[in-house]
Specification:
Keywords: Signal, Storage protein. This is Hexamerin A. By secondary structure, the chain is of the alpha+beta class. It is built from 21 helices and 18 strands. The protein has three domains: about 130 residues, Hemocyanin, N-terminal domain; about 220 residues, Di-copper center containing domain from catechol oxidase (di-copper center containing domain from catechol oxidase, Orthogonal Bundle), CATH 1.10.1280; about 200 residues, Immunoglobulin-like. It has an eight-stranded mixed β-sheet. A hairpin with a 2-residue loop joins strand 3 and strand 4.
Length: about 700
């Protein structure tokens, strides 16, 4: 049965092509059956740490006899993973209340088994019963992780919306004092809270650790590194391409996952560097495994079980006996990677040689560095970034294997909060640049678009500011569960949801910008299709020195990209920041999302499905660096290139209205290397001479709230 009605709003963006977020002007409206499933899916994430919260979910869990389930144990390929998960259950899963980390090997193996059972479940009913069972019996963090990855990768669940990660587990995003205040409101019987429409409501001011304490200069940009949208983006980047997931069945290798892994981190570093310049900080510091680490970090976060996230002092002595083995491993892996990049190949155990000297082999290198299942080699090259993050997180060795207290670096939800994250990935991205340095510079012919000349670029005033955003942190408090009555809920049906008696929000302050447009004026000798890329980069270094292009090429951040049909003669291409490709708006809160789902279910409203809040997009409000009050100069670079169609037409095999297309091999608008033309060393005499490229100086102004 079809569960969507298509309504086409127009095709003005039909040729636009986002590398990560499908760009389409179509929307779809969900029907009742779909909304029923969406509601039930949302409720699995509500009050995560209270397994008895909803009596019907408890009934599903208790009435689902996992070991005797014919849906699991008589259905291939679920059966092998069901046996494995049940074996873990019988011998002791990670207990509820303990902290889950995908970087812990034992945790990861159990989470993968649960993911596989959920992924291979033969139908929605089986999937949901397993999920309800896991919510009750499996560790909370492990459950959310496995369920999130399963929903992301199951084709039949495309379009379903999950609550924002910061609402599911506020502990990884919101500072301790705010969580503590929320729990105090609950413990004091909601004293001091207003009652609106029968619901107790309060909003608690929240800030960043850079406001609460100044441990080092890096705290000046905690508003950026601790941004909940930025950290959610990185978490979802991982759930799209987990380092442990791969193979033909999932098709991740078709998405150039190795190249994407390297390019995503290079772009994160480039964007981070623009923010550093806006705060008079220079290049991302480098570190040595044999010297104290100058950059400490106090995360000001606390787990649900009461343990604080480990802190790292300034000048942390990483080279200590407890880390000797891990440091030796990382140093060995780093040297092996540098060696194979320089020699241009590596050998497999069977003696086969794998080429690393062609432009396309950057994908092979990325898989090798990430050490994912799509890599050619898994014995000699391991998880460099993972081991580095564990070492640098400064977590204490646990007495019991299940009683771990991971650092912020060991969670994808919180890793980007720590300034050392960027120092680690500067080392990782250095392998990317080392590889690219062995490739020849782009020639004039490789950059030139015959018959096309960019005449000029006009950009609106670029202005940033800080605004306020309310985050629903109700999941951080426990509420009184409804009593479970055995025998009351039999069979599989609609879940009854009693709305929470309280809604508690944290009011955060975030970087944002005023919407702007840019216009590209160009002349084309003949009509044709073009690929347009727009980058934002620094003009001066932290000392005010003018950058040369070659030393600066790795600092350009890809701001926009799209495919355009050019007419013969004069063309003016106008783009609004609201519609730039690759970006998404803020996530809808659980409270509002549930309300609109139920309004759609009852017919009061139509529930719209589109990609405006797609999990695979970068926050729109973070596309510009903060700049300065008096203005900060940057430079915009535009290049218009001949369109090179991908081997598989974009959006083939998935619905771009509902899905990001992960694993389809049809996500990208063309076949150019990611980051082209800044991905290689630059011959400036050639770069500045091609008529189809253009540099435009721009200034980013920052205004305070009062000035706006």
């Amino acid at each position: 049965m079809r569960t969507f009605v298509v309504f086409v709003l127009g095709a003005t963006l039909a040729l636009a092509a986002g590398a990560f977020v499908p760009s389409t002007s179509q929307v779809k409206y969900a029907e009742k059956e779909w909304l029923h499933k969406q509601e039930d899916l949302l409720l699995l994430f509500r009050h995560l740490y209270e397994k008895d919260w909803n009596p019907q979910l408890v009934a599903y869990a208790k009435n689902f006899h996992f070991k005797e389930s014919t849906e699991l144990f008589q259905h291939e390929p679920t059966v092998q993973w069901a046996k494995k998960l049940w074996s873990y259950y019988e011998h002791g899963l990670l207990p509820k209340g303990e902290v889950f980390s995908v970087y812990d090997e034992m945790h990861r193996e159990q989470a993968v088994a649960l993911f596989r059972v959920l992924y291979h479940a033969k139908d929605w009913e089986t999937f949901y019963k397993v999920a309800a069972w896991a919510r009750y019996y499996v560790n909370e963090g492990m459950f959310v992780y496995a369920l999130t990855v399963a929903v992301t990768h199951r084709p039949d669940l495309a379009g379903f919306v999950l609550p924002a990660p910061y609402e599911i587990s506020p502990y990884y995003f919101i500072n301790t004092e705010v969580i503590q205040k929320a729990q105090q409101y609950k413990m004091q019987g909601y004293y001091g809270m207003k009652k609106v429409d029968g619901v107790y409501t309060v909003t608690i001011p929240s800030n960043y650790t850079g406001w609460y304490m100044h441990t080092n200069a890096e705290q000046k940009i905690s508003y950026f590194t601790e941004d909940i949208g930025l950290n959610s983006y990185y978490y979802y980047l991982h759930t799209d391409y987990p380092f442990w997931l791969g193979g033909e069945q999932f098709g991740l290798s078709k998405d150039r996952r190795g190249e994407l892994y390297l390019y995503e981190h290079q772009q994160i570093l480039a964007r981070y560097y623009l923010e550093r310049l806006s705060n008079d900080l220079g290049h991302v510091p480098e570190f040595s495994w044999r010297s104290p680490i100058p950059t400490g970090y106090y995360p000001d976060l606390q787990y649900y079980n009461g343990h604080s996230f480990p802190a790292r002092d300034n000048y942390y002595h990483v080279d200590q006996e407890s880390n000797y083995r891990e440091i030796r491993q990382v140093v060995d892996y780093e040297k092996r990677l540098r060696d194979v990049i320089d020699q241009g190949f590596f050998m497999l155990p069977d003696g086969k040689k794998v080429n690393l000297s062609t432009p396309e082999s950057v994908d092979v290198l990325g898989n090798l560095i990430q050490a994912n299942p799509d890599s050619y080699e898994h014995r000699f090259y391991k998880y460099v970034a993972m081991y580095a993050r564990i070492i640098m997180g400064a977590a204490i060795e646990p007495v019991e294997p299940y009683q771990v207290i991971p650092s912020a670096l060991e969670h994808y939800e919180s890793a980007m909060r720590d300034p050392v994250f960027y120092q680690i990935y500067k080392r990782i991205v250095a392998y990317y640049h080392q590889f690219k340095d062995h490739l020849p510079e782009y020639t004039y012919d490789e950059l030139y678009f015959p018959g096309v000349k960019v005449d000029g670029v006009v950009v609106d005033r670029l202005q940033t500011y800080f605004d306020r955003f309310d985050v629903d942190i109700t999941n951080a408090i426990d509420i009184e569960p409804e009593p479970y009555v055995p025998g009351k809920y039999e069979g599989f049906g609609e879940i009854e949801y009693k709305p929470d008696p309280v809604v508690i929000k944290a009011r955060t302050v975030r970087l944002n910008h005023k919407p702007f447009t840019y216009k590209i004026s160009l002349t084309a000798e003949k009509a044709g299709k073009a690929a347009v890329r727009v980058f934002l980069g620094p003009k001066y270094d932290e000392y005010g020195g003018l950058y040369t292009l070659n030393e600066n090429h790795e600092n350009f951040y890809e701001l926009d990209y799209f495919v355009q049909e050019l007419a013969a003669g004069k063309n003016v291409l106008t783009r609004s920041s609201v519609n730039f490709n690759g970006y998404v708006k803020d996530r809808t809160s659980f409270y509002e999302l549930y309300r609109t789902v139920m309004a759609g279910y009852t017919g009061a409203e139509r529930f719209q499905l589109d990609m405006s809040e797609a999990h695979c997009g970068f926050p729109n409000r973070l596309m510009l660096p903060k700049g300065k009050k008096g203005g900060m100069p940057f430079q915009l670079f535009v290049i218009v290139s001949p369109y090179k169609a991908p081997q598989v037409s974009q959006y083939t095999g998935f619905d771009p209205v509902l899905s990001c297309g992960v694993g389809s091999g049809a996500r990208y608008m063309d076949t150019y290397a990611f980051g082209y033309p800044f991905d290689r060393p630059i011959d400036e005499t050639v770069f500045y001479s091609v008529p189809n490229a253009f540099f435009q100086d721009v200034v980013v102004y920052h205004k305070s709230e009062g000035e706006l």
